[in-house]
Amino acid sequence: MVHLVAVESRTVLGSFTQGASVLSVCWATPTVGVVGLSDGRMVIVDAEALVTRPLSHDSASPIETVTAFKGGVLVGRRDGLCQFYNLNGSSSFQLTGSDCDPIYKIVRDTNYIYTACRDGLIRKYRCSDINV
């Protein structure tokens, strides 16, 4: 169950049942959230219209981490796949290196994307090398 809560007013704006455990959430835009689920699905939550819609389900591998990036999201999966998705569901690139070890966290700053993987390595990718 996903609950959309207005923290300041302490009110629940909406609740959405997804049928799988929620493993990660991020705001892709100020009003659009992306939820990563244990069955490999990604769901968009529109905070203005209070509706959900599917983003992608191209793998059954659980989504461990979701991070906003260039108008879409970077997704790290338990099978080691680290992939970018536009909010329309299309995917334009994958980050390599984990060799099937789970991606536990993706973070970014102004210049770099960092991934944390079960193999103990932190991988660093330059944002300027990525064209979306």
UniProtKB/TrEMBL annotation:
InterPro entries linked to this entry: WD40/YVTN_repeat-like_dom_sf (IPR015943), WD40_repeat_dom_sf (IPR036322)
Name under which the protein is recorded: Putative WD-repeat protein
